[in-house]
Design a protein that fits this description.
The protein is an all-alpha fold. Helix content is 42%, strand content 2%. The chain contains nine helices and two strands; from the N terminus they run E-H-H-H-H-H-H-H-H-H-E. The radius of gyration is 19 Å and the shape is flat. It starts with 22 loop residues before the first strand and ends with a strand.
């Protein structure tokens, strides 16, 4: 079994498969993962403006990975992170770009979904759920694991230090979905 954490003997090995080398998730997998964690599905349209009358929409709830012809639908996110072409052998550029960094900081995929009406965080904020329970729920959704015992008090302290609970929780969820643990296979 290959471990993702290299040891002293294989830390510099990049070609002999002695350990798992982290790699970014494919664009459509990452988009689906963000949609899943935030609870806001992506709407795929054939026009840049999804409200256009002439736009064709993919069926409700379709995931990016299930689009038969992803190049037909407008998606700034897929363009930035590497739109797949299912008609050819896919070659992806896995190197991060400035566009990806800017999208992560200010783009709608990472930011507008956080407190969108009906999002996971929005529903939790409307309920009397404690911050610790919200932290656990998002860790399970994003990482498939509970937070470490020492992480919860630290995260609660950081959330409490923000100007409002909503801002603190939004920052917390944004940090989860923009983390390397979330966005990479390792």
């Amino acid at each position: 079994m290959r471990a993702s954490i290299p040891n002293e003997t294989n830390k510099d090995d990049q070609i002999n498969y002695s350990h798992t080398i982290p790699r970014p998730l494919d664009a459509e997998v990452l988009l689906d993962a963000i949609s899943n964690v935030t609870g806001v599905p992506e709407v795929f349209s054939t026009a840049a403006n999804a409200d256009a009358d002439s736009a064709g929409l993919a069926p409700d709830g379709v995931r990016a990975i299930n689009l038969h012809q992803p190049d037909v639908y407008f998606s700034r996110f897929l363009d930035l992170y590497g739109r797949p072409n299912r008609l050819t052998v896919p070659e992806r550029n896995a190197k991060p770009s400035l566009g990806q960094a800017l999208d992560m900081l200010a783009g709608p995929t990472y930011n507008d979904r956080l407190m969108a009406k009906g999002s996971r965080l929005n529903r939790m904020m409307e309920s009397p759920m404690a911050n610790g329970k919200i932290i656990e729920d998002f860790y399970l959704a994003a990482f498939g694991r509970y937070p470490a015992r020492e992480e919860i008090p630290e995260l609660e302290r950081l959330i409490a230090g923000q100007s409002s609970r909503e801002e603190g929780l939004k920052d917390f969820v944004w940090a989860l979905i923009s983390s390397r643990e979330f966005a990479e296979n390792h």
